[in-house]
Design goal:
heterodimer; A: 439 residues; alpha/beta; 4-stranded antiparallel β-sheet; 14 helices; globular; B: 342 residues; 6-stranded antiparallel β-sheet; 4-stranded parallel β-sheet; 14 strands
Chain lengths: 439, 342
């Protein structure tokens, strides 16, 4: 019997561990000291101001239990079966009602339900971005978006914000500078309302300017709006999508209902929708039918607008607690924004302090935060950190800030000992542009 | 021919027949072991991974395993559930500085690992290094200084003296702790202040030692027989050049060679050194020595660990696998010894 020719040319090393021949784009997916430190944040001794976990304490769980039971009893055959890749039609109609609160007029046919809006963000990046394409994003930006952009090897160019959100002049400058090099970004990724992590909101008078600038340079706009209905003043800002039907829009029930259900959506123009549905089909076949039907029943039978108001009260109470504690405890040289909605305060610490390097000290003091560098794709943000006030009780928030103040004092003491030579390079401390601090 | 099914569950009447005070272990053929993992140290994540791996390995040999965190419920659990033995898979902090071991000793719970007093000595790196050096073992020259010394005597002057004495590059690390957290190699004087600030975020005292060039190795010592014995030395080849946290816990980021690619005489010297350090520091059951073999074959001990990592990418399991010893069987023997010790 003839011996088959070896397929591998001689001299080529045989990989000893085939399962570890990872794709180059996963090079950044490694164990990290900082991620490891967060393991401690799950312990009750630690006040975690790090994660943006929605507060579900206000949900009517008993009523929901009844809904779940009825869903299984009455519609189990449908709820537990595969469904449409685009999502349950009835839910897509209800999603349009939700979006109408922010001025969006949409056709349910243009809505694609996804496993959280994170999946929509990931899939839109997948269908729009080739490796090395440029994406514009606010600086800082949502860490989950940066993860998706990195996974598809897109390059992120940050545009700074001030207290009123994205700065149009800086956006123009970025677009012009990129165009001069022959680069047209694939899209601008923006969180206009109650930004994660910066906590700021794009001023209404800037919204048209941002849209016009992107249109002028042929850049799509990807609007991520999970917090838009969680404002503390009663004011609802018009979505960018309400001003321009070409905007790619991401919405979510994670903050207005239940994050664990993982139901989000994209509202996109028909041409994008077709590819998005195909991409979604290849990723998950269809979003979970059971969860979609549960959300649909909840929207149909319950006062979901009233529930959002309840959530808003929960978050406003916590926002007030954190602002009061910051004012009381933090050392001189710290500045922060005053969010009027959402989950986050963006804190700038005294010059020279590196919030990433300081994190172990904070963990030892039993308080956790998210250091600023995680919200930039380019290493900036070492002088910033994000505090989430959404989950802990107001008392725990106050205690957490008190501990953080002690950590900052100790870090400043060490900084004083070692002087200016110990400071991180200034170019990594933050962009040379307005920061979203207002105090 | 009859097939006899052996039911390993304890007979509920056994204690009545054999006496009310019969120990639980006489009824159960397999011991119940509590694996402690997690804790509140910076190494919680690593510890949880070690604990899961060890628990799975022990279950693989039929041991009944409970996985417990070291939290406020621990003492109550130990009192009510009364495991036959505890294995401390905690890394850093209370799991290695002797605190948890002291509590186990107070409660009279048999445990695998080093007694509290010796833990405390080994945990403090400068103390352990001094003891090793006093016994004539090589360990890189070092200085350990608290933040207050830099503050009170002037950081620049102290750092200059440090560089003058130890030279560059320097290894800067917290005086306590593991997994290379807060550790970094400093090659230029100008980078020292920033390295100090990073390091002092982990501990109040900095240990700076002469950086030793050579082959990085780890030698585990186990007491699974009559005498302590050293497992084959594992050579560490980090792909990025530095065996830092990422290199330690990212599968594929480091290549391990076991036994290390060194002369037989050096391998033997490494094993002897690890055994000497284990005994000198009063360690028990299991330990791991991290060392660098200089080009001339001299073994420089970097540190000795009382709670070696047991994760998928850790060194002790790699060494055990290389000599064909199952991790569950190895720790099963250590558990037996702990129970026998009482």
């Amino acid at each position: 019997m003839p011996v088959p020719e070896p397929l591998r040319p001689s001299g080529t090393p045989v990989p000893s561990r085939p399962v570890e021949r990872f794709a180059a784009r996963t090079a950044g997916m490694t164990a990290s000291e900082i991620r490891a430190l967060f393991a401690v944040a799950s312990r009750p001794e630690v006040v975690s101001l790090a994660g943006g976990m929605p507060n579900l304490a206000a949900l009517p769980l008993e009523t929901l239990a009844g809904e779940v039971a009825e869903l299984v009893a009455r519609d189990g055959q449908v709820a537990l079966q595969y469904g449409s890749a685009q999502g349950v039609p009835a839910l897509r109609e209800q999603i349009c009602e939700v979006m109408a609160l922010e001025g969006i007029r949409a056709d349910p046919n243009d809505v694609v339900v996804t496993v959280g809006s994170q999946m929509a963000l990931d899939l839109i990046t997948r269908i729009l971005c080739d490796p090395h394409d440029v994406v514009l994003a606010e600086g800082p930006s949502y860490v989950g978006a940066l993860g998706s952009f990195a996974a598809y090897q897109a390059r992120v160019v940050h545009v700074a914000m001030d207290a009123h959100g994205l700065v149009p002049d800086l956006l123009r400058e970025a677009l012009r500078s990129l165009a001069a090099r022959g680069v047209i970004p694939k899209f601008l990724y923006t969180i206009p309302n109650f930004h994660n992590p910066a906590g700021v909101t794009l001023a209404v008078e800037r919204r048209r300017e941002v849209l016009d600038l992107c249109a002028e340079y042929g850049v799509a706009v990807l609007e991520d709006n999970p917090y838009g209905l969680l404002g503390f003043t009663g004011r609802v800002y018009p979505a960018l999508r309400s001003m321009d039907p070409g905007v790619l829009y991401l919405g979510s029930f994670s903050k207005t209902f239940a994050s664990g259900l993982r139901v989000g959506w994209a509202l996109v123009p028909p041409a994008v929708r077709e590819r998005l549905v195909l991409a979604a089909e290849s990723a998950t076949l269809c979003p979970p039918t059971f969860n979609q039907l549960l959300v649909s029943r909840y929207l149909a039978a319950h006062d979901w607008r009233g529930q959002i108001k309840t959530f808003t009260e929960v978050y406003r109470e916590r926002r007030d607690a954190i602002l009061s504690a910051l004012e009381t405890y933090l050392p001189d040289g710290c500045t922060w924004n005053i969010p009027d909605g959402g989950f986050y305060v963006w804190l700038t610490v005294p010059e020279g302090v590196d919030t990433k390097a300081m994190l172990p000290r904070a963990v030892t003091a039993r308080v956790a935060y998210a250091s600023g560098t995680g919200f930039y794709a380019d290493g900036f943000g070492s002088r910033q950190l994000r505090l989430s006030y959404c989950y802990p009780t107001p008392e725990r928030i106050t205690e957490g800030v008190r501990r953080l103040a002690g950590v900052l004092e100790a870090e400043l003491d060490v900084m004083r000992t070692f002087g200016s030579a110990a400071r991180p390079r200034p170019e990594l401390q933050g962009p040379q542009a307005p920061s979203p601090d207002t105090t | 021919m009859f097939h006899v099914k052996h039911d390993r569950r304890p007979d509920p009447h056994a204690s009545i027949r054999s006496g009310e005070n019969a120990p639980v272990t006489e009824q159960n053929s397999e011991p119940t072991v509590a694996v402690l993992a997690g804790g509140l140290s910076h190494e919680r994540e690593v510890s949880l991974r070690s604990g899961r791996r060890l628990a799975s390995a022990l279950r693989g040999i039929g041991t009944v395993v409970r996985e417990w965190d070291a939290d406020a419920a621990l003492i109550e659990r130990l009192r009510t559930e009364r495991p036959d033995a505890v294995v401390v898979a905690l890394h850093g902090g209370e799991g290695e500085n002797g605190s948890v071991q002291a509590v186990l000793e107070l409660l009279g719970v048999p445990f695998v690992g080093t007694p509290a007093a010796a833990c405390r000595r080994a945990w403090d790196k400068p103390t352990a290094k001094a003891e090793l050096a006093r016994a004539g073992l090589d360990t890189p020259d070092w200085v350990a200084l608290p933040h207050a010394t830099f503050r009170e005597l002037g950081a620049r002057a102290v750092l200059d003296a440090m560089v003058e004495r130890l030279g560059l590059p320097l290894m800067v690390k917290p005086d306590q702790g593991g997994s290379a957290l807060g550790a970094q190699v400093v090659t230029e004087s100008a980078d020292l202040p920033a390295a100090m600030v990073s390091c002092l975020a982990y501990a109040d005292t900095v240990l700076a030692e002469r950086f030793v060039h050579g082959t990085e190795v780890a030698v585990s010592v186990v007491e699974d027989g009559a005498e302590p014995r050293a497992l084959p030395p594992v050579e560490v080849e980090a792909k990025g050049g530095v065996y830092d946290y990422t290199a330690r816990y990212t599968p594929g980021a480091t290549t391990f060679h076991c036994p290390a690619r060194l002369d037989d005489a050096v391998l033997t010297a490494l094993q002897e050194t690890a055994l000497t350090a284990h005994q000198l520091l009063g360690l028990r059951d299991v330990s791991r020595m991290d060392a660098v073999v200089e080009p001339d074959g001299r073994v420089q001990i970097l540190e000795v660990n009382v709670s070696p990592g047991l994760t998928e990418t850790s060194l002790l399991p790699t060494a055990a696998a290389a000599e064909g010893t199952d991790l569950g069987v190895l720790f099963g023997r250590l558990v037996e010894r702990a129970i026998a010790r009482g």
